[in-house]
């Protein structure tokens, strides 16, 4: 399903700075890889902003995010991670979520995420302050990850991932366990990367989350937000933007994407 046989696993592990422990149990390996991936490969949509087409096959994803040391958005990130996990013997199911971020209403399912071994919620591609490590796919699952706190609720077969921010629970996204395939993701990705109404078209988005804060660049503005509700914003000059991308996110982006 996820073409893990096409993956250069050694190159990927070097990219994320992780060495597999043959004595570790699968759950520990999954958690360590999830955190290592997030720490090394940031969320970014620069190719969309530059008008470049996105390829979601494993060799293309590996070329971009491993060899060229770029980032990607949810479809790219989670498809690459699905190939890694499949290669390591995990059972991977693709899912799709409605991104809420506190909103309500009729919101389409445009976010890719993964169910692993039928018991873990796995997501390395959510730029809006998502999980640092996998969360048990169980009603009421609750976990502190660094300064961030997450909860998973189930209501009428709909799961909702929530994050405690600024003194209240904020719904990040909602999903069901209806499976999705790479072909489903290709259709969604094409829409999100080409439709003028998409939030990813026409602006630069770069994000990463660590144990203490979420760092986000939107065009030329840098925002640093904490789970306690505080945030700092500042505008960046073109030179400052290039420096921030390089030093804070490890990215050298095409000039057309940052201009």
UniProtKB/TrEMBL annotation:
Organism annotation: Saccharothrix australiensis
Family per record: Belongs to the arylamine N-acetyltransferase family.
UniProt name for this protein: N-hydroxyarylamine O-acetyltransferase
Alphabetical list of InterPro entries matching this protein: Arylamine_N-AcTrfase, Papain-like_cys_pep_sf
Residue ranges that the Swiss-Prot or TrEMBL entry lists as coiled coil: none
Keywords for this protein: Transferase
Gene Ontology molecular functions: acetyltransferase activity
Cited Gene3D superfamilies: Arylamine N-acetyltransferase (3.30.2140.10), Cysteine proteinases (2.40.128.150)
Matches recorded under SUPFAM superfamilies: Cysteine proteinases (SSF54001)
Database matches in Pfam families: Acetyltransf_2
């Amino acid at each position: 399903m996820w073409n893990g046989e096409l993956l250069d696993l050694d190159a990927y592990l070097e990219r994320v700075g992780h060495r597999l422990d043959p004595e570790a149990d699968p759950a520990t390996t999954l958690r360590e890889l999830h955190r290592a991936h997030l720490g090394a490969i940031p969320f970014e949509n620069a190719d969309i902003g530059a008008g470049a087409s996105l390829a979601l096959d494993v060799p293309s994803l590996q070329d971009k995010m491993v060899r060229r040391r770029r980032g990607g958005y949810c479809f790219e990130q989670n498809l690459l991670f699905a190939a890694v996990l499949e290669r390591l013997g995990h059972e991977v199911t693709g899912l799709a979520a409605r991104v809420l971020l506190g909103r309500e209403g009729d919101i389409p399912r445009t976010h890719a995420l993964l169910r692993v071994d039928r018991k873990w919620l796995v997501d390395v591609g959510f730029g809006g302050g998502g999980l640092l490590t996998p969360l048990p796919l169980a009603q009421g699952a609750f976990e502190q990850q660094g300064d961030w706190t997450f909860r998973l609720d189930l209501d009428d077969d709909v799961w909702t991932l929530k994050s405690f921010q600024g003194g209240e629970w904020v719904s990040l996204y909602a999903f069901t366990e209806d499976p999705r395939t790479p072909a489903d993701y290709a259709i969604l990705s094409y829409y999100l990367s080409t439709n003028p109404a998409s939030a990813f078209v026409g602006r630069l988005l770069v994000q990463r989350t660590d144990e203490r804060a979420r760092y986000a660049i939107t065009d030329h503005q840098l925002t640093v937000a904490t789970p306690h509700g505080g945030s700092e914003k500042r505008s960046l000059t073109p030179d400052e933007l290039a420096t921030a991308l390089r030093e804070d996110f490890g990215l050298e982006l095409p000039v057309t994407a940052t201009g």
